[in-house]
Amino acid sequence: xxxxxxxxxxxxxxxxxxxxxxxxxxxxxxxxxxxxxxxxxxxxxxxxxxxxxxxxxxxxxxxxxxxxxxxxxxxxxxxxxxxxxxxxxxxxxxxxxxxxxxxxxxxxxxxxxxxxxxxxxxxxxxxxxxxxxxxxxxxxxxxxxxxxxxxxxxxxxxxxxxxxxxxx
Length: 168
Prior knowledge:
CATH class: Alpha Beta
Radius of gyration: 14 Å
Strand order of the largest sheet: 2-1-5-4-3-8-9
Number of helices: 6
CATH architecture: 3-Layer(aba) Sandwich
Distance between the termini: 24 Å
Order of helices and strands: EEHEHHEHEHEEEEH
Helix content: 25-40%
Shape: globular
Largest sheet: 7 strands, mixed
Number of domains: 1
CATH superfamily: Glutaredoxin
């Protein structure tokens, strides 16, 4: 499992873009994790799935609401990563009103989740291999803080916890 001090895995996530610009075309665009984190501080949180109860009601809203506070604490971007396709993440972004606040990044094949060692097997619930729920503070591709939830929990990966770590 990835730990504090480790570098994020060299993988590619996908992001659904609704508006052309800054070299991005409409539709899913690849996000090279190493390039996208270079020289930046990222508040990254991951969760089991888009549109799931805890993720939609608590996890994402906390980060959306605290976007300005994260920026004030020196965070360049907030990323939400989930094992869903880019189209689902794009629809969820609209639903959560996260545009300009939280980048909703798809890990469709669970490559990032597997490379970090932070997977969750939800096959018994019909969801297959997913990402565990966690948050991390990343600076220039290196993990500065990592908060991994226990099964079925939402206690340490919330926005308030990671914001306090970003301010420290």
